Amino acid sequence: RKLFFDTHALVCLLEENGFTTQQSEVIVSALVKIMNNNLDMIYKDMVTKVQQEIALQQVMSHIGGVKKDMIILEKSEFSALRSENEKIKLELQQIKKQVMDEITKVRADNKLNLNLEKSRVKELHAQQDRALTQTDRKIDTEVADLKTMLESHKLDNIKYLAGSVFTCLTVALGFYRLWI
């Protein structure tokens, strides 16, 4: 393994700072052991490039298997769903046709009933108009009869009045002759 520091330079530095050669070498060897143990721990968690490529190939083959399974499922399950969907579409079209036929039938019945009611109302209005016309004619006839009777009475009254006036004049002239 490569060490990223100079062990001899570290021993010399420790000796310059008051350590003995034996103490310096023990400290440096302890540091090297600690570093080697740390590197071993790090290397245990790490994967090599070869291991990474093997894992990648395994994942890719698993993805390929899943794709094949999906294609098989699509062909079997989705085709069943599609056929069921087609059946439902056909049933919906039949129901839609039946509903449209019923709507057309109800519309025709309603139009017929409406036309019958219109003709009944027109006939009723015509009867009412005839009855009103007859009533108007009767009223006009009665008014004309009343006017005729009034004129006849007026003429009779004028005759009686004239007769009365002449009678009074005759009586007055008779008295006048008698007095003169």
Automatic annotation (TrEMBL):
Question: Which InterPro entries does the UniProt record give?
Answer: CCDC90-like
Q: Name one GO biological process term.
A: calcium import into the mitochondrion
Q: Which organism encodes this protein?
A: Ciccaba nigrolineata
Q: Where in the cell is it found?
A: Mitochondrion membrane
Q: Which gene encodes it?
A: Mcur1
Protein name per Swiss-Prot or TrEMBL? MCUR1 regulator
Domain of life per record: Eukaryota
The primary location reported for this protein is mitochondrion
Keyword terms, alphabetized:
Coiled coil, Membrane, Mitochondrion, Transmembrane, Transmembrane helix
Q: GO cellular component terms?
A: mitochondrial inner membrane
Q: Which family does it belong to?
A: Belongs to the CCDC90 family.
* UniProt cross-references to PANTHER family, sorted A to Z: MITOCHONDRIAL CALCIUM UNIPORTER REGULATOR 1, PROTEIN FMP32, MITOCHONDRIAL
